[in-house]
Amino acid sequence: MARKTIVIALGGNAIKQANEQGTYEEQMRNVLITSKEIVKLLKAGYRLVITHGNGPQAGSLLIQQEAGNKEVPAQPLDAVGGMTQGQIGYMMQQCLTNLIGDERLQIPVVSIVNQVRVSADDPDFNNPSKPVGPFYSKDEAEQLKVIKPDWIMKEVKPQTVEKRFRRVVASPDPIQNMEAIAIRRMLDSGLLVIASGGGGIPVVYDENRHLKGIAAVIDKDLAGAKLAEVVGADIFLILTDVSNACIQYGKPDEKKLGVLSYDEMKKYSQEGHFGSGSMGPKVNAALRFVEYGGERAIITSLDQAFEAITKSAGTQILK
Amino acid sequence: MARKTIVIALGGNAIKQANEQGTYEEQMRNVLITSKEIVKLLKAGYRLVITHGNGPQAGSLLIQQEAGNKEVPAQPLDAVGGMTQGQIGYMMQQCLTNLIGDERLQIPVVSIVNQVRVSADDPDFNNPSKPVGPFYSKDEAEQLKVIKPDWIMKEVKPQTVEKRFRRVVASPDPIQNMEAIAIRRMLDSGLLVIASGGGGIPVVYDENRHLKGIAAVIDKDLAGAKLAEVVGADIFLILTDVSNACIQYGKPDEKKLGVLSYDEMKKYSQEGHFGSGSMGPKVNAALRFVEYGGERAIITSLDQAFEAITKSAGTQILK
After folding, report:
1. Is the residue at B304 inside a domain?
2. Is residue B213 part of a domain?
């Protein structure tokens, strides 16, 4: 039997816990825990491709860029995306390389820079709502509108009474993983590839069919489904901070979902059981992967990952 | 005849000119000029691996980290190295992908995170002299010695009268490119790989033979020679801001070096013709590559790169 290929989409807590500052030591501790679970799957013989979020790391870089903008020019959001792919890719690559070496496995690990194409006509560009970077006062927000005419500022859930404005960008749908051919060749040559970090660097085609970066944030699970499609993955494993997706979430009759069919999950999704900012995009990404032809999509927590693959733990959506 | 493989080490001006601030637009303009020269070599049928420096980009990130350190934790120098590999890799990957597409060539471009191992016992760790990050006043430097006991501060060529202290780190010799196997497989599968950026992320083995980052900066040309060795390159092309290495540099009898033998170049090097901070490391890297078994090493400027490969322009060191 051919070895199964799994694309794993790591949740934010795989690298930085919500209650942490995000020091290097904290991040490396989380990456170590995550990597141990990944190596269990490698030992069991699965071929893996890894993707991950970048929210906290991109946020930190944007704050630092702003703080230092009198001395050195800030880079745009697409370049910041590249930076976080390098930063997180480095931590994961180092940690996985060490653990794989301990197990005497011969699997080289490589993180790549990865662009994901979106449409400049994506409807989300008309009403961007994804906050990025620092919080600003009303005055600062007004000034920024002058200095950065392409920035859209919105009042958001207040951090403090004064600082309650943030830049918002679109979250367009991923259309094409631009390094798909390279990733397939790398996987075929036996490499463990870390790709599509932070949902990929968002790019669009210009009038000459040249790629150029665009200010946006692509959902990392939707981009992960695209990655799973292009590598022909059998299983798409979405890891988050809960063991299962639930219906009637937070209500007395809340029910954890186990193994279910595409049609059942699609129905629950259409009934609005999953929050648009939390479980909703994960369920959509899982459904898409099965639509693309995947064998099964799984939503579960890191500590259930191995059991999910080997014993059907977590929420499993079958073709 | 088998296609020749060239490792190209791009000088700093390939991405940021000395007189520029380093905005994204400026950097992309330089990367475009550089990429056009690279594509000429691809069209001529050569297999390429690209490496590049990261000095200005790492410097900017360190200044930004310092400016934002009240809000978010600064990351160590090795993680900053990963960030610059992602940032510069992104710009080059995008630009090269566009130009390669224009030529209807089928060569996927991928930038990778790349660690380079050094020895924790490298003598340079005893007397570090490579300045990194912001300039500080004497008072600030004294305070930093307390807050960051592992930092070494040195008085350097003053930027201003007040701010004339900088952190210095070692520049150890590269021992091993940790992603060598992956890079070879990628090259063999027809990919154009961008690797060893900024001289690679410096790592050492700890007591468990696990890799861990270390505060250091590896010379990008010496790391490039190591990269050229591991991919079995035929030619190592070091691009800088002058067309040739010179003997008697800056003197009335200054003479540009053209094609010469390893032994001749070794003799000139031993006679001290090449500055330790400028041409010296490039000549050393070129000599090492020929020692490793390379066919020829070339030192020249970007605009002479194609002529150097096809018509022996620049300084050429033969086996």
Report:
1. no
2. no
Q: Following CA atoms A290, A293, A294, A298 in sequence, which dihedral angle do they give, to the nearest 10 degrees?
A: 0
Question: Which residues of chain A lie closer than 8 angstroms to B24, CB-CB?
Answer: 73, 75-76, 79
CB contact under 8 A, A64 and B60: no
Q: Give the angle subtended at the CA of B114 by the CAs of B81 and B198, to the nearest 5°.
A: 45
B206 at A interface, C-beta within 8 A: no
B182: closest chain A residue by CA: A108
Reduced DSSP (H G I as helix, E B as strand, rest coil) percent helix, strand, coil of chain B, to 5: 40, 25, 35
For residue B100, the chain A residue with the least C-alpha distance is A210
- Cβ pair B243, B314 in contact under 8 A: yes
Sign (positive/negative) of CA torsion B163, B152, B284, B316? negative
Taking only Cα atoms into account, the Rg of chain B, rounded to an integer number of angstroms, comes to 20
Residue range A188-192: mean pLDDT, rounded: 97
Residue A244: inside a domain, yes or no? no
> By the 8 A CB rule, do A229 and A175 touch?
no
| Interface residue of B32, B36, B71, B94 to substitute, partner A, most A CBs within 10 Å | B94
Q: Which tens digits make up the pLDDT trace of A10-30?
A: 988 899 998 999 999 999 999
Does A186 contact B at CB distance below 8 Å? yes
> B residues 121-150 near A, CB within 8 Å?
none
Q: Quick one: pLDDT at residue B80?
A: 98
Q: Encode pLDDT of B248-291 as tens digits.
A: 998 999 999 999 999 999 999 999 999 887 899 999 999 999 99
Q: What is the value of ipTM here, to two decimals?
A: 0.96
Neighbours of B68 (CB within 10 A): 21
In the sheet with B296-301, reading across from the earlier edge strand, the strands are: B109-111, B192-194, B47-52, B5-10, B235-240, B296-301, B315-318, B259-261
Return the pLDDT at B1. Answer: 54
- Count of positions (residues) in chain A: 319
The 10s digit of each residue's pLDDT in B101-119 is: 999 999 999 999 999 999 9
Catalytic residue from among A59, A282, A284, A314: A282
The lowest-confidence range among A43-47, B142-146, B231-235 is B142-146
Specify the higher pLDDT residue, B160 or B149.
B149
- Do the beta carbons of residue A177 and residue A196 sit within 8 Å? yes
Q: Look up residue A95 and give its two tokens.
A: 């940690």
The answer to whether A315 contacts chain B (CB < 8 Å) is no
Judge whether A54 lies within some domain: no
Range(s) of the domain holding residue B132: 121-172
Res. A1: pLDDT tops 70: no
pLDDT for A53: 96
A103 touches chain B (CB under 8 A): no
Number of independent structural domains in chain B: 1
Cβ contact, residue pair B113, A111, below 8 Å:
yes
Averaged pLDDT for residues A275-290? 93
Interface A-B: count of C-beta contacts within 8 A: 185
DSSP string covering A292-319, please?
TT-SEEEEEEGGGHHHHHHH--SEEEE-
Average pLDDT, rounded, for chain B: 95
